[in-house]
Every structure is written in C-alpha cells, then in structure tokens.
Write a structure and sequence with these properties.
- The protein is elongated, with a radius of gyration of 41 Å.
- It has 2 domains: 89 residues; 233 residues, Bira Bifunctional Protein, Domain 2 (BirA Bifunctional Protein, domain 2), CATH 3.30.930.
- α1 runs parallel beside α4 and α5 packs across α10.
- By secondary structure, it is α+β, with helices and mostly antiparallel strands.
- Strands 1-5-6-10-9-8-7 form a 7-stranded mixed beta sheet, sandwiched between helices. Strands 2-4-3 form a 3-stranded antiparallel beta sheet.
- The protein is built from 11 helices and 10 strands.
- A hairpin with a 4-residue loop joins β3 and β4.
- Its cofactor is Mg(2+).
- It is found in: Cytoplasm.
C-alpha cells in the first residue's frame, strides 16, 4: 500500500506539472483529493491493515496529501496573481486624460417662478393649498357662481370626462374646497398653485395645459384696499421696488367688483416699448372681491365676512420676467432653451 501511495503521488505531481489553466488545476484537485479520488480509496482500505501498519501507512498518506495540496496551492496563487495583473492592466486609468463632463441640471423656469411666487406669499403669511386636477363640475363652476348653462362657461372651453367630471380649468376649486373645509372659520389666507386644462389651440401665447396660481383671503372687514396693497407688495417683490400697479374694471362671475391688474412695464419702466405696446403697462392677473354668492355657498355669511381673490398664469409671469416670447418653449424640452436657466 505504501508503494501504491508513492506511485499515486508521482502520478499526481506529474499531471500537475502539465496544467495550463485554473480549470485544469481544479479538475486535478477533485480527481486526486476528492471523495471519489484514489487517495480516499487507499485510506478506506486501511481497515484491513494490522495495528502496527496503520500508523505508518496513515503518516505516508498524510504526507502524500500534503505534498499534492502544496503544489495545488502554489499553482493556484500563481494563477490568481496573473489574473489580478491582467485585470489591473486592462483597467488602467490614464489620469492625464481630460475628465468626462457631468451636465448640470437646473430648475425649470416655470417651477422657478412658481417657487419664487410661493416664497413671496409665504412671507406675507399665506399658506399653500392644493386640490385635484380631475375635478367635479360643482367645485369648478357651480360653487363659483357659474351654474349650468351660464354664458360665462363659454370663456373656459373644458375637457369633460363625464357630465359631472372634468379636468379643472382653474385652481379656483381649491378656494371653494378650502372654504368648505374651514366650516366658517377665519381667517383664510391661501395661494393655490397647480396645473389647469382648457380646450385651446396651442400657439405662441396659448396652451391647452398651463400653470395657474390663485390666492384667497377671507376675514372680517376685508376691503379692496387690502387687495391692492397685497398685490402691490407682490409685484414689487417680484419685479422690483419701483414697480407700480393699476386696477382696471373687469368682470368675473366669482368676484364683484372685479379688476384686471396691470404692472408698469419692467422693460422700459413705464415709458413705453415694444413689449408693453408703448402703453407703459402690462396685464398680469385678474382679481376682485369674493362674490357674496360664493361666500354664501361655501358657508360664510356675506354680511359678516368678506374677502378678495386673484389669479395669474405662471407662464405669463415667467415670459415677462425672462423675456420669453413663445410659451411653447416651456414644453418642448429643448436643452438649448433650458440651459439658459442653469445659472439664473
């Protein structure tokens, strides 16, 4: 049995000397040292040996195993070192090459304007209120003093889903929801930014989807002068301390009296230019005192409470602020356009 072990060692060492890959090395390890290998078979036959022979044969078997394992480990280490060297050579980085530029993102100009407007009104004590974009006809029209068949509904051609469900045409429904949720409590002082939808032909100044920001204040003794003072503070924060406003009589079903609000042209300072059509004024929003009927439908006694509301398009504000002449630039995802706002 000793001679067999010696012959097995020589055979194994000879085969190990001719291996050319890690896979061949692993196959030989299994062949000679595995559970079904010849070395294991020899050790299983030791039960037939005498008590004097077993320790001697056992020592020889252990020596044979140790020699085979040592050669395998040596070759395994050499293969691993070579593999590491090859990987390092393949993954070498030339630190003298120029770096790959990482494009800088930027806040979209519409979002930037909305955030700026929110900050201004938050500074004046307003809170931000939100509501669903898919709205009930009641909140979008009826609760705002626009009953069925009201002719003013034609001013806002709508995307109806059913007879009673539509894509909201304004963020005014948020005002109604806020008043009803407050259950007659005052004060209410909110702005409601969000997307709105109207059936419109897209061109340089119109879009079927746009962003609107509306405001609402309800309390005792709210007057038109409060509305004017609030809007004057707003436009001066937005466009500069020298900006002036004027209110022109207008009509909205949910406010009475109603007014369009103009600001002195930020391009020419009110002197007259192409942007303001040489009038010195630019219209930016609509406003007015909340209609008594709207207050009443939302749970407020119009004899005790009053309020004002206003609404503006974020796209129009952004176009005036940044000198953009085509509203479609906001939605076409043209990187050449968006990159202009990286550092603004």
């Amino acid at each position: 049995m000793k001679a067999r072990l010696e012959a097995l060692k020589q055979e194994a060492l000879q085969e190990l000397g001719g291996v050319n890959s890690q896979q061949e090395l692993n196959d030989l390890r299994i062949k000679y040292l595995g559970k079904k290998g010849p070395l294991t078979e020899v050790l299983r036959g030791m039960g037939a040996l005498s008590a004097e022979e077993r320790p001697l044969i056992g020592q020889v078997a252990n020596d044979v195993r140790a020699e085979i394992e040592a050669v395998i480990e040596q070759k395994q280490a050499a293969y691993q070192a070579q593999e590491t060297e090859n990987r390092l050579r393949a993954e070498t980085i030339d630190v003298t090459l120029p770096g790959r530029p990482s494009p800088l993102g930027a806040v979209h100009p519409i979002n930037k304007v909305v955030q700026e407007i929110e900050d201004i009104f938050l500074g004046m004590g307003f809170i931000i209120a939100e509501g669903p974009e898919v709205e009930r006809d009641y909140y979008n029209f009826e609760a705002l003093n626009l009953p069925k068949e009201h002719p003013a509904r034609d001013m806002q051609d709508s995307f109806y889903i059913t007879d009673e469900i539509l894509m909201r045409t304004q963020t005014s429904p948020v005002q109604v929801r806020t008043m009803q949720a407050s259950k007659g409590a005052v004060p209410i002082k909110i702005i409601s930014p969000g997307k709105v939808y109207r059936r419109d032909d897209d061109d340089a100044t119109h879009s079927h989807q746009f962003s609107q920001i509306e405001g609402l204040v309800i309390d005792r003794n709210i007057r038109m002068s409060d509305l004017k003072g609030t809007l004057l503070q707003f436009v001066r924060e937005l466009y500069g301390a020298n900006t002036e406003i004027r209110l022109r009589p207008s009509f909205f079903p949910f406010t009475e009296p109603s007014a369009e609000v103009d600001v002195s042209c930020m391009m020419c300072g009110g002197k007259g230019c192409r942007i303001c059509k040489h009038t010195g004024w630019i219209e930016i929003l609509g406003s007015g005192m909340v209609h008594p009927r709207v207050l009443e439908m939302s749970g407020y006694d119009p004899n005790e409470y009053s309020g004002f509301a206003f609404g503006m398009g974020a796209e129009r504000i952004a176009m005036l602020k940044y000198g953009i002449e085509d509203i479609r630039h906001f939605y076409t995802n043209d990187l050449r356009f968006l990159k202009q706002f990286v550092h603004i």
